[in-house]
TrEMBL record:
EC code(s) of this entry: 2.6.1.52
Lineage, top ranks: Eukaryota, Fungi, Fungi incertae sedis, Mucoromycota, Glomeromycotina
CC cofactor: pyridoxal 5'-phosphate
Any one GO CC term of the record: cytoplasm
Catalytic reaction(s) noted: O-phospho-L-serine + 2-oxoglutarate = 3-phosphooxypyruvate + L-glutamate; 4-(phosphooxy)-L-threonine + 2-oxoglutarate = (R)-3-hydroxy-2-oxo-4-phosphooxybutanoate + L-glutamate
InterPro entries (alphabetical): Aminotrans_V_dom (IPR000192), Aminotrans_V_PyrdxlP_BS (IPR020578), Pser_aminoTfrase (IPR022278), PyrdxlP-dep_Trfase (IPR015424), PyrdxlP-dep_Trfase_major (IPR015421), PyrdxlP-dep_Trfase_small (IPR015422)
The protein's name in its UniProt record: Phosphoserine aminotransferase
Gene Ontology terms, MF aspect: O-phospho-L-serine:2-oxoglutarate aminotransferase activity; pyridoxal phosphate binding
Pathway named in the protein's UniProt entry: Amino-acid biosynthesis; L-serine biosynthesis; L-serine from 3-phospho-D-glycerate: step 2/3
Length: 387
């Protein structure tokens, strides 16, 4: 059966490079001459161990991850990290303040809210802990997401905080930071990079923890990559227990001590990720893909900027290069646009159900050709409706 020709603009699970899928297909029944599929191997086997190590090495090379950071392959998606962070970093802060601490232990957790994912992360933290400090919430300030307030307006807690949390790219709202926030250097910076990791170069050493679900720029759902600075793996051995005990599956130290083999890992997803890492290295690494990503986003935003019908809900300086939401104000035209796009094989362009509109997700695996195809359609649609 031949594959229908489609352009997948889905926000995640998202397009995986065709060459990666073909290779997985070729190797599906016989991984590395084992006579078995990678899904059937023991996770304690030599073959899997070397796959696990190679995937980590390649990711380290791609992102230039310093040696004092561990790479963890975890499960449960971004949602699970929303709570893993709270447990792990409260414990690290408890240790940092000293085991003989006399005063009450209640450090603030600072959250920057720029869209629905950081908002959800803060809500999850509130379920576990009573001192969550909202540094700012753009929706509360402006009525909707689409901007980031200037630093002077941020209400950070300074060195008292156990961490500062933000989401580098808000997948639903199309808001992306154009810089790494500057915070008190003694406080770990925690970042959700689920939808823009591997899309551009950045300095890992500025972060305490970076995490990303795999299903956008890394590979297949099921794997969550966590990059954690080693000093944060310190655990408080406080017996009075003024911090919650960490469930083993959320414990970064346990995962690190077992090289992500504490329990059965999502091996197939890690395998696909390792093929994506190889694909990126062959392309010329992050620098190369970053150039293509910038060109794709520039071309798409240019059409929106010069259009009489398409409107971006996001301020120019913080527009995402990965998720490009736009609206057509005229009644009924958005559904006509989406219907027409599907007929031409452009799939999953519908905006998130919470915000509506249209959203083109143009992750690493979306080609320039795919973006140009969309652009031609957008221009033709505008000509038809705007004489
Ligand atoms: N953070 C971001 C930025 C996301 O885009 C998503 C999912 N789209 C999540 C967190 C939640 O991830 P998961 O569905 O893997 O739990």
């Amino acid at each position: 059966m031949s594959t229908p020709n489609v352009w997948n603009f889905g926000p995640g699970p998202a397009k995986i490079p065709t060459s990666v899928l073909k290779r997985a297909q070729d190797e599906l029944l016989n991984y590395n001459n084992t006579g078995m599929s990678v899904m059937e191997l023991s996770h304690r086997s030599k073959e899997y161990e070397s796959l696990n190590n190679k995937a980590q090495r390649d990711l380290r090379t791609l992102l230039n991850i310093p040696n004092n950071y561990k790479i963890l392959f975890m499960q449960g998606g971004g949602h699970t990290q929303f709570s893993a962070i709270v447990y792990n970093l409260l414990s690290a802060k408890r240790h940092q303040l000293g085991e003989d601490l006399k005063e009450e232990f209640n450090p603030p957790l600072d959250y920057l809210i720029t869209g629905s994912w950081s908002s959800k992360a803060a809500e999850e933290a509130k379920k576990l802990y009573n001192n969550v400090n909202i540094v700012f919430d753009v929706k509360k300030l402006k009525g909707s997401y689409g901007s980031i307030p200037p630093k002077e307006e941020w209400k950070l807690s300074g060195s008292k905080a156990a961490y500062v949390y933000y989401c580098d790219n808000e997948t639903v709202n199309g808001v992306e930071f154009n810089h790494i926030p500057e915070i008190d250097p003694s406080v770990p910076l925690v970042c959700d990079m689920s939808s823009n990791i591997l899309s551009r170069r950045f300095d890992v050493s500025k972060f305490g923890i970076i995490y990303a679900g795999a299903q956008k720029n890394i590979g297949a759902a099921g794997l969550t990559v966590v990059i954690v600075r080693e000093d944060l793996l310190i655990r408080s051995n406080n017996k009075n227990s003024d911090i919650p005990a960490i469930p083993s599956m959320l414990d970064y130290k346990i995962m690190a001590d077992h090289n992500s083999l504490y329990n059965t890992p999502p091996m197939f997803s890690i395998y696909i990720s390792s093929l994506v890492f190889e694909w990126l290295l062959e392309l010329g690494g992050i620098e190369a893909i970053e150039k293509t990503n910038s060109t794709k986003a520039e071309r798409l935003y240019e059409v929106i900027n010069n259009s009489k019908i398409y409107k971006s809900p996001v301020e120019k300086s913080v527009r995402s290069r990965m998720n490009v939401p736009f609206r057509i104000e005229q009644e009924g035209l958005e559904s006509e646009f989406l219907k027409g796009s599907i007929e031409l094989g452009m799939l999953q362009l519908k905006g998130h159900r919470s915000v509506g509109g249209i959203r083109a997700s143009i992750y690493n695996a979306m080609t320039l050709e795919g973006v140009d195809f969309l652009i031609e359609y957008m221009k033709a649609f505008e000509r038809k409706h705007c004489q």
